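Worked example (supplementary).
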Amino acid sequence: MLQSHQSELHDRLDTGVTELSTFRDHERPGWSREVFSEAYRASREWTANRMRAAGLEVHLDAAGNIVGRLAGLDPSAPALVTGSHTDTVDGGGRFDGVVGVLGAIEAARLLAAGGRQLRRDLLVVDFLGEESNVFGLSCLGSRAAAQELTPADLDRCDYRGVSLGRAYTDFGLDPAKLSDVPWARRPLQAFVELHIEQGPTLEQRGLPLGIVTAITGIERFIASFAGSADHAGTTSMEDRRDAMIAAAEGVLAVRAEGCGAPTHGVATTTRVDSESRSPNVVPSLVRMYGEVRSVDPGWLSGVQGRLGAEITARAAKLGVDVGFEWSSDNAVVEASRGVQDVAGAAADTLGLPWMPIPSGATHDAVHMASLAPMGMIFIPSKNGKSHCPEEWSSTEDIAVGAQALVATLQRLDGGDTRPQH
Ligand code: GLV
Ligand code: MN
Ligand code: MN
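After joint prediction of all chains, the assembly is encoded as:
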């Protein structure tokens, strides 16, 4: 790449991260820009303008995704798609998702400036609301584009009782039309997402790139513990049916489940709520929220049975009953063998060392995999930190990722057959 193009790429990525990070919810910690928030709404015009300035034709689709098109020579050829998301978790950082959107826009700019028009259309997408939200559902925009958002999903309610369908309406989107996304119905050649690793492996190994092999599946649960309300001063320790102690045992059982995974597995309790407001009442109803993840579908498919039985048995010893609500956020998804090979060959040509790597985080790529052969390119995360304000990747590393994305898209554009799934 020409020196002038390189320093322009560097500067544009650097200012892009900085400018986008100014759209944040000042009442919340970190760089919060949650889906449906005012900060997120305000940031979207910035993103659309960035796409327009890179020469893309931009539209907002019915699912709420911002889509920029770089026209190819043959509009009937299956299109290439790249992109990620610009929403954050509450208290999140500046790079998760943002790197994949800015990297995709810069890739399109470089391809347009390269003088050799692509044969295929290139679609750059900023997907709506990738992070799991107050409705407990991730990847809203890619899920809807893939026709995987269900009517039951729209009925999910947040802690105030507001439904997801209502949140869409308030954001200016029609919940009845979310899957009406023509770009996702046309033939697609491949989807490639650039993303930060969100873990420590690449940094520890001194590698600039990872090529994703598979994306974790996620099972989420709410466990409700029902004990007995009693006077906290007069009821002996033996006579209590304390729902809080049963939940504490449940937290330890969740940890033991993750620690016992044979290959890759993690299990997290994220919240425990008690209905008891008074400090002098033994808690009678406690809810515990969490999730279990793995790239091993066999182990993950058994988690509901194993963990349910263990938590129930521990609670029974305390005289406490337990009920579970399980929901699957997504199944384990393998990256396309063909796209992995193309991305690896592109990195080799650029002289960039890389490793195959599984993703313990979920991504829009999970849902795009049902529409097109899917691949992901990871860049290092400083100290492996993510979903926190300290999340950081250097502009040099992001620029390397964008170059790898360009080279991968060029190779995919040239292929006559669809990469192997
Ligand atoms: C998203 O980043 C997730 O893995 O939950
Ligand atoms: Mn992400
Ligand atoms: Mn994330």
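Two points are worth noting when inspecting this output. The longest helix spans residues 395-414. The mean pLDDT is 97.
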